[in-house]
Design brief:
Two copies of one chain form a homodimer. In chain A, 41% of the residues lie in helices and 21% in strands. By secondary structure, chain A is of the alpha+beta class. Chain A folds into two domains: 134 residues, Jelly Rolls; 86 residues, Winged helix-like DNA-binding domain superfamily/Winged helix DNA-binding domain (Arc Repressor Mutant, subunit A). In chain A, the strands form three sheets. In chain A, strands 1-8-3-6 form a four-stranded antiparallel β-sheet. The first copy, chain A, has a four-stranded antiparallel β-sheet with strand order 2-7-4-5. In chain A, strands 9-11-10 form a three-stranded antiparallel β-sheet. In chain A, a hairpin with a 5-residue loop joins strand 10 and strand 11. In chain A, helix 4 crosses helix 7. Chain A is globular, with a radius of gyration of 18 Å. At the A-B interface, strand 4, strand 5 and helix 3 of A face strand 4, strand 5 and helix 3 of B. Chain B binds a DNA duplex (30 and 30 nucleotides) through helix 6.
Chain lengths: 233, 233
DNA sequence: CGATGTCTTGAGTCCCGTCAATGCACGTGG
DNA sequence: CCACGTGCATTGACGGGACTCAAGACATCG
């Protein structure tokens, strides 16, 4: 890689906090890779040969069953990390929901580099713990929330996380955004079917809580009401 | 603490791999604590003041909603780690399902010790990644599996994890074990109600897949069939 | 302007949740 | 020892929320 100091996600990704010489060394190990929408970069159950940092774009991490049922276990945004360090196999697949740009490392190489650079392992730990928190939150959603609550929660989550991507750090979340997911994928994140997702969205729209100018864009018209419907902890 | 070298979980817990002097230093920071069944040691949303290693017993990590709905997000066994390092607040509550013994650290103290001891942070990372894998697996269960599949999966999981606790490392899992969960708690892990759990267990019993000599003990009579019913990935 | 894929909407069904009664084990006290 | 109360689990009857199946609407693109 040419020059990590110019990287857009430099301050939020796991590379943040590395010394200049460490950053340089890590940069030598990785390569930038462009991925187009729909492309899968990691396969569940396959040998874990690569890990990567997301520079731009949105991807999904998913697991599926023998009969094809699929659960999306994570939505991956820019500056997030994908892949499974320190394990033989990848526990999930990763597929691009939009065109994306990755900073890819050989897993074995990355592992040994990480073991020699505590600051990097610390960042990895932070990132893993944050993801674990989000996974727990989502288990609550999948185990206990109603369809309406799930949809409301997802919309708010997307509003916030898509907002973070733009460096503006607007904590409250965007009021208008484009969904990187189609209806099926929303269903696969929420443990619902495509029809239920569609019906719930229609209802929120009819109630004036949101507007849907087209299939992918969402306007939040009444954030407070949406938050009530999400029935947060 | 007196002497960590004698600790039962010494070889599986995060302390594994520490140098003798590191172990000694860490031991100085912790204290053993006995917990009785039903007692809560960490509260969701409270300041994250302590973290701990589980020496003996089984605990649950849970999150709940304003109206009381509760989701168990993790079952914690001996040698597992509880609490949230590097964060202000605890994202979940932890409650003992059986009498238990912990090795407790002040979170702030533990954090700064960890930052100075890369080997410890590496173990923490491994443990966080493993837990993340399990959380993802469980998201698939909560999002996509039927009641029967959920129950079968839980029984197999308990069979394996309770088997690991005894140092024998019998990979296949126990055929007879005592559930540390009551029916309500099983429901709260699986995203089901107490009645559905009970009905499913009765059906597995009627079909000869399992036997239930009493409320808490399970005999697996036909493991293969149970595995089929679990509809694993 | 069809062709195609995605989304929406409707009608019917089913699995699981809700409500309620009963069963069972255990402990306490008469 | 038995009566009674308590807490948990089981079982049954019923209803509802989400799933299934099936049209129909809409957008995109050749």
């Amino acid at each position: 890689m040419k020059d990590c100091t110019q990287c857009i996600v430099r301050n939020r990704a796991i590379c943040a906090g590395l010394e200049p010489d460490e950053l340089e060394a890590l940069g030598q190990l990785g390569r930038k890779q462009r991925i187009s929408k729909g492309q899968t970069v990691l396969w569940e159950g396959d040998d874990s040969v690569v890990v990567a940092n997301v520079i731009a774009g949105v991807l999904k991490a998913s697991m599926s069953m023998a009969d094809g049922r699929e659960q999306i276990v994570g939505i991956v945004f820019s500056s997030d990390f994908i892949g499974r360090p320190f394990a033989q196999q990848s526990p999930y697949s990763v597929t691009a929901l939009t065109d994306a740009e990755l900073c890819v490392f050989s897993r074995a190489t990355f592992d040994s580099f990480a073991r020699k650079h505590p600051e990097l392992e610390h960042k990895l730990l932070q990132q893993a713990l944050n993801e674990l928190d989000r996974a727990h939150e989502w288990m609550l959603l999948l185990g206990k929330k109603t369809a309406t609550e799930r949809i409301a929660t997802l919309l708010l989550e997307m509003s916030v996380r898509l907002g973070e991507t733009g460096c503006t750090a607007d904590k409250s979340g965007l009021d208008a955004f484009e969904l990187p997911l189609d209806r099926r994928q929303m269903g696969d994140v929420l443990g619902l079917t495509i029809e239920t997702v569609s019906r719930q969205l229609s209802r929120l729209k009819a109630d004036g809580v949101i507007a849907l100018p087209d299939r992918r864009t969402v306007f939040i018209r009444d954030r407070e009401r949406l938050q009530d419907l999400a029935a947060a902890v």
